[in-house]
Amino acid sequence: FVWRASPSLGEGAQVFSGLTGSYGGNYGPPDGFDWDDHNSNDETLQDDPELTNYNVKTRVDQFVAQALLQANRTRGTNIMFTMGSDFQWENSHEWYYNLDRIIKYVNLDGRINAMYSTPEMYVDAKAREATIAWPLKTDDFFPYADGPHKFWTGYFT
Fold this sequence. Notes:
- By secondary structure, this protein is mostly helical.
- Helix content is about 25%, strand content about 5%.
- The chain has 3 helices and 3 strands; from the N terminus they run E-E-H-H-H-E.
- The protein has helices at about 55-70, 90-110, 120-125, and strands at about 1-5, 15, 135.
- Strands 2-1-3 form a 3-stranded mixed sheet, with no helix packed on it.
- Helix 1 packs across helix 2 (about 90-110).
- The longest helix has 18 residues, at about 90-110.
């Protein structure tokens, strides 16, 4: 959606927003693709066919399924996985090891296209989807709490 919270500033101060990440109320990676050392036991991608735990096809199928799930919950053809969350990437080698391989094999599979990106590249791609009518929000967001005395007021403003 497009958030235009300031009537006096108008379109010049609007923000493109939307759901990213796991849609479970967070902005972390999709289910099954969290390679954080302390918070996850998600399966690494094993692409050596000589090993008994070779799993390229399974992991590609799982990644494509997550991408299609997210694509069905948003407008347009571009989606963004936010890979990581608070206090993650303590072992960036593990993350990049898996991401490099999942991108490679997903693109070889051909059902979807995966790449490293930035928020700017994502917003530009969404903006080029000219046939999409984005909902317009013109008021503020209601504060919310995720625990006792843990309010997120003004988080988006």
